[in-house]
Amino acid sequence: MLPFLTMNLSLADAAETYTEMTKKMMKGIENLSHLREEDIDIGITPKEVIYQEDKVILYRFKPIAEQPLNIPILIVYALVNRPFMVDLQPDRSLVVNLLKLGLDVYLIDWGYPTRADRWLTLDDYINGYINNCVDYIRNKLNLPAINLLGICQGGTFSLCYSAIYPQKVKNLIVMVAPVDFQVPNALLNMQGGCTLGAEALDIDLMVDALGNIPGDFLNFEFLMLKPWQLGIQKYLDLLEIIDSEDKLLNFLRMEKWIFDSPDQAGEAYRQFLKDFYQENKLIKGELMIGDKPVHLRNIRMPVLNLYAEKDHLVIPASSLALKQYIGTKNYTVRSFSVGHIGMYVSSRVQRTLPPVIGEWLKAHHAV
Amino acid sequence: MEETDFSGTSTNQLIKAWAESSIATWKSWLDLMESAIHNPMAQDKTKFEPISQRFTDYQQLQLRLLKLSFQSWQELLPKFEWGEDWQQLLDRYMQELRTQVHVFSEKKHKSSQNAAELWQLYTQELQKFNQTWASTFGASIDPFSQIYGNNSWTEPNHLYWNKIYEQAFSHFIHIPPLGPNRVLNHKFMRSFDAWTQLYPASMDYQLVLAEIHMQSFEKLMKTLISLAEKGETIREWPQFQQLWSQTADQVFEQAFCSEDNLKVRGRFLNAINQYKLCQQELIETYLQIMNLPTRSEVDEVHKSIYDLRKEIKHLKRTLAQYESQAQIIPFEDA
Predict the structure, then answer these.
(1) Fold of the A33-365 domain
(2) Model confidence, pTM
(3) Which of A88, B35, B78, B331 has the smallest CB count inside 10 Å?
C-alpha cells in the first residue's frame, strides 16, 4: 500500500501538495547533484596546534577580541564522537560565540585511538592528557589555574580532574555531564548495566573480545535509544528540507559528525562502564583514577552546571545530582529547553548559552 | 487570491494524474530508503557485523511496519467515521501480526532443538569465517589441509560433523577431547558451544523486538482512534509518520526499561562477544601454524610499548622536576 493519505483529500489539496513536493524534489535533486563530501566542512574556525602528545592535540582558537580575558577556557569534550560539534558551522558554533564574547578558547582533540591504544586507561586520559594540557596552558601563560568547560563525558572527566587538582581549576563549567549514573528511567544507563551489571552488558567480556570498542557499536547503541525517530523518521523528514541548500548542508554536517565515531580505547571504556555506569563510584566517593582518589567534595571552585531539559542521553536528574556532592557553595545551574544535541546546534540555544557562559566567567574572573 | 476551478473533466484527469504521481513520489522515496538501507559493515566481519546486520534488518522491518500501520489506518478510519466496529478490524490485524511472530517463534524453537540443523547453520557460518583467511593464504597452507586428507577448507567442519559430533559427541560437547588434535578439537567445540548460545540469544532478542512492533502498532492505532474521537483526526502523511515514530519509540523505551528485556538484550550481546572470543582462538591456531603473528601477540607488543611509553613519560617528568629544583637552589647551597 502506498503511504499517502488519499482519503478525504480534495483534488485541490492533492494538487497543491504534489506541486510543493515536486518543487522540493527537483530543487533537492539539484542541490544534491552539486554537493561533494568536501563541502560538508565542520570545525573550520581558525586554530593552531600548540601541544601534542601521542594522538592527542591541544588547539588554541584564534582570538577575535583584541584583549581576550587573561584566564583562558579549556574545552574538554567526550571520547565518544569528535569534539568539533562545538564548532559545527560558523553560524552555529559555540566556539565562535565564546570567541566573540572575548574569551581565549582552547580545545582538546583526543584523536582516533587505534588498536595500539587499547591499553590506555582513564588514568592516562585524566591524570595524563588533561593534566598535561592544563599544565601546558598554565605554564605558557604563567597562571596558577585556568577555566575548564567539560562537555558530556568530558564533563564527567572535568569533574574528576577538578576534584583531583582543584588548585589548577579557576572555574568549572560542566555541560550535559552525567554525574549520577543510576538515576531511574535512563535507558542508556540501564543498557550500560546500571541496574543489572554484567547481565545487561559484560564489559570485561566485550573488551576481551573486541580490544577497542568500535565506534560503530556506540552509534548503534545511541540509535537504538530512539530507533524509529533516529533511524527512519529523520530520513523521511529530509524530504521536507531537501530543497534548501543551507538546511541540507546542516543536515549533512550533523550526519557527518554523528557517524564520525572514533573507537574507544578498550581499558578506558572498561573502567568507564564499570566504575561509572555499573557501580556509580563517582558519587559514592569510591572512584580511583590511577592512584588518585576522586572526592567531589574537593570541588570548591565556582561551578556552572548547564543541562538540557529534554536530554535522553544524559537525563537532567543525572546532571542535577551534582549539587549535593560538590564542596563549593558557589554553584549555578542553568537549563535549556532542548535535547542533548540541541545544546550544540539549536540556533536558539546558540543565542542564549554562550552569553550565559561568558557572563558567568566574567563575573567570576576575579573571584 | 483567485481560486482554481477544478470542475473540468480534463483538469480533474490532470489533477488525478498529479495525485497519483505524488503517491509514486512518496513511494519512490520510501523505496529509495529501503534500498539504501544496506549493511556497510557486511564486508567488515572482524568488527561487529552481527549487531550492524541486526540494525539494518531492523530498519527494513521498521519501514515495513510503517507501511502496514498506514494501510491499517486507512482501513480503520472510514469504519470509525461511519460508526462501524473498528475494534474487530484492529483485532484482526493484531492477530495476523501475532500469528507471524508465533510462526517465527515456533521455527526458532524447533531449530534450537534440532541439533543437526544447528550444526548445519554453524558450519555455514564457519565456512564464511574460513573464507576470510583461506582466500588470502590459499594453497600456501597446503600442509595443514592434508591433516584432514582433503583440499577443501570447509572439509574439517564436515569431518567434525560426521565423525565426531553427529555419530558420537553430539550432546557430550564439553567432554575433554583426545588425541594429537585435542586442543584444536576443544577450540572447535567451544566455538560451536558459543554459537549454540548465540543462536537462541539472537532469536530471543528478535522476538522481543517483534513484540515491541506489535505493541507499538496497537498503541498507534489506539492513539489514532483516540485523537479522532477528540476531533483531531490524523489525515496528513507527515503527521501520521511523526505520531508513528514517537509512539513506537515510547513503546520501545518502556519495553527496554524492563529488566526481563534488558536481560534478553544482555544475553545477546554477551553471546556475540563470547562467540567472537572463540573465533579469535580458532583464527590464532591457524595463524600459529602459518607462523604469522596473532592478535594476542600483537596486543602483548602494544602493551609493552604502552608500559614503556608511560615509564619514559614518568622519568621525563621526574627529571624535569629535579632540573627545576636544581635551578632554584642558591649557588652557595649547591
Answers:
(1) Rossmann fold (3.40.50)
(2) 0.80
(3) B331
